[in-house]
Every structure is written in C-alpha cells, then in structure tokens.
Design brief:
The chain is 70% helix and 5% strand. With 361 residues, it is mostly helical. Helix 6 crosses helix 8 and helix 14 runs antiparallel to helix 15. Strand 1 and strand 2 form a beta hairpin. Among the domains are: 106 residues, Serine Threonine Protein Phosphatase 5, Tetratricopeptide repeat (Alpha Horseshoe), CATH 1.25.40; 87 residues, Tetratricopeptide repeat domain (Serine Threonine Protein Phosphatase 5, Tetratricopeptide repeat); 53 residues, Glutaredoxin, CATH 3.40.30.10. 40% of the residues are buried. The termini are far apart. The chain has a three-stranded parallel beta sheet with strand order 3-5-4, with helices on both faces. A two-stranded antiparallel sheet has the order 1-2. The protein has 18 helices and five strands.
C-alpha cells in the first residue's frame, strides 16, 4: 500500500512538472518493489524535454522550445505551470498571439502552489516570477497595458533582486506611458505628435501590434497612406488576425487606389464581419473601382440590400448580362413554397448587399 501511495504521489508530482519530487517518490516506491517502469520512462522523457526546452529558450530557438514544451506536456507534465508558461512565451515570440493568450489563460486556472516549491530558474528568474513575466508580456501584446504592468509588479515583488524582471517592468511602464501620451495627443488632433509618441513606445517594444496600428491611424489622419500601410503590415505580421489593422490597411489601399489589394483585404473582412454593412459597402465600391481600372462594364452595378422586383423578359435579360453577381428568384403567385422561402431570400439579400437579388414574378 505504501509503495502504491508513493507511485500515485510520483505521478501527481510529474503532472505538475516537479521532476525531482517525482523521482524521490518513485525511488521510495522502488524500495517496496512497487515502482512502475512506465512512470520512470515518463519521468525521464519529461526531464529530457524540459531540459531541451530550456536550452532552446536560452538561445532564442522558439520553434524548438515550443516543440520540446509540447513533448514534455504530452509525456505527462500537463499541469505544469512552468511548461505552460514556456509554451506561451514560445508562441508569443513566434507571433501566435491568440495561442499564447489561450495557453496562459489555461495556466491561470491551475494551482500555483507547486511553483513556489520549485528550485528551477529561467534566466535567473524564479519559476513563479517567470510565469508572471510571461503573463504580463502576453497582456502587453494585446494592448492590456494596465493589467500587464500590475502583473509585472507582482513578478518584481516575488523576485526583487532579479535585474531582468526590473528591466522588463521599467520597459513596460515606458511603453504604457508612450501609448497614453499618443492617445491624448491623437484625441487633441495632434496627429504628427501622436505618431512620434507611439514611435517612442515602439523603441522600447518593437513588436507591439497595438502601437503600430495606432501609429497607422495617425498616418491616415495626416494623409500619409503608404506609411499607414507599412505600419498595418507590421501589426498584421505580428498579429495576423488583428481586425482593426486590416480595416485600416484596406482603407489606406483605397486612398492609394491599390484596388486589387483593397478588395483582397475587404473580402477577408467580409468573412470575419458578415453583418457589417459598412465593410460590405466598402468592398462593393472597391470591386467597382477594380473593374473600372480593368475596363470592365460597371454601369449597372449597384449596392443593394433589398430584393428588386422584375416583371418583364427584357429586365431578366439585362440582369443576366449585367456585371457582378446576380441571383434571380422566380416567384409563382399564390405558391406556398415560394411564400415560405421569401423571408430567407430577404435575409440573404441583407447579408450580401453587394449581390443583386431579383425577384421575377
């Protein structure tokens, strides 16, 4: 019974990533001839992958760090806050912000008591402080500046002697201050000064998508559309799903009359924001402009939203030969099936205002 209890404790310690404690418990189980070889194998695998993850992190090889963290988690350390933090940091450095955020969110649901008992250090940081630092950096990347600073302050309180933690906290404060100054200047209509303030923030954190997107807004207000596109490109390189940056880039492409690029961005936005009529209308106008530059007929193209009634064969022929996408809906008088489907057609028309819906009666 004692051996089985030690075995269960070993498995629990391994789940938390507490390799040394797991080893001690397995050794005690072995003294009673009840040590499980499979658990020893898991321990060696977790220990090996954890060490490789730390080595990869040390040299900035984030793909390898992520691979090794995932392998350690898969081999049993699935409740290790340290490994989950290393996974989140690796994802953050690889510009997979949503995955980094979901990983750190899952980590916070776990009991942190195991961290305080771990002797492991990363870059000289104690494990508990390191987890807080990663959490702060993820919050910073998403523009949650106040939360990031509060969490970094907790990391500093846990590990006050660590120079790197102090440097990270000070850097975050400088970035947050630059962003606040930029926001105030932007609200005051001082767009050139605001762009400089956001640029100061980027000097301290060159991979913050929020600052790039905010500076792009300044360039737009100043009519510097090419600069706006450049900053939106940077924001989207770091965070590909950043909708606000995509909206600003699409609008800037329109001002630059880069219609193919403009249409491409608005098509992506149309899928992400299917109920946004402003995006639908912008896409329609960009499509018209693109067709015009190609010498295509656009005189009959219109931005819809309502089903148009057609009563003559001439109107049907004109619709068939008109540019753009046209849906012909043939309606039989007093037909119950037609009456039942009409609300669905009307709803589809509202959702797809760039498509011509014609009811033939």
């Amino acid at each position: 019974a004692s051996g089985r209890a030690h075995g269960r404790l070993a498995a629990l310690c391994l789940r938390f990533g507490m390799v040394e404690k797991a080893r001690r418990q397995l050794t005690l189980a072995g003294n009673t001839n009840q040590s499980d070889p499979a658990e020893w194998h898991k321990l060696h695998e977790v220990e090996s992958h954890l060490g490789k993850c730390m080595d990869a992190r040390r040299i900035g090889d984030w793909k390898s760090a992520l691979r090794e963290a995932d392998a350690a988690i898969a081999n049993g350390a699935d409740s290790s806050q340290l490994l989950l933090a290393m996974r989140s940091e690796s994802l953050l450095r690889l510009n997979k912000l949503e995955d980094a955020d979901s990983t750190i969110t899952g980590l916070l649901k776990l009991d942190s008591a195991s961290l305080s008992s771990m002797s492991t250090k990363l870059s000289g940081m104690v494990a508990d402080s390191y987890v807080h630092v990663v959490q702060a950096q993820v919050n910073m990347a998403f523009g949650r500046f106040d939360a990031a600073i509060a969490i970094a302050e907790k990391a500093r309180a846990i590990d006050p002697a660590n120079a790197e933690v102090g440097l990270i906290l000070n850097n975050m404060r400088l970035v947050a201050r630059a962003r606040a100054q930029g926001n105030d200047l932007f609200k005051a209509g001082k767009f050139a000064e605001a762009s400089i303030a956001y640029g100061e923030g980027l000097k301290h954190e060159s991979s913050n998508p929020v600052l790039y997107c905010n500076r792009a807004a300044c360039w737009s207000k100043l009519g510097r559309w090419a600069k706006a596109v450049e900053d939106c490109n940077e924001a989207l390189r770091i965070q590909p799903s950043y909708t606000k940056a995509l909206l600003r880039r699409a609008a800037s492409y329109a001002k630059l009359e880069r219609w193919a690029d403009c249409v491409r961005d608005y098509e992506v936005l149309r899928k992400e924001l299917p109920g946004d009529t402003e995006v639908a209308e912008s896409l329609f106008h960009a499509q018209v402009a693109l067709k015009t530059t190609r010498g295509e007929e656009v005189s009959n193209m219109k931005f819809g939203g309502e089903v148009e009634i057609v009563t003559s064969i001439e109107q049907v022929r004109a619709a068939i030969h008109s540019p753009g996408v046209t849906v012909l809906y043939f309606m039989a008088t007093m037909n119950q099936q037609c009456a039942q489907i009409t609300p669905s057609v009307d709803a589809l028309c509202s959702e797809c205002p760039s498509v011509n819906f014609l009811k033939v009666i």
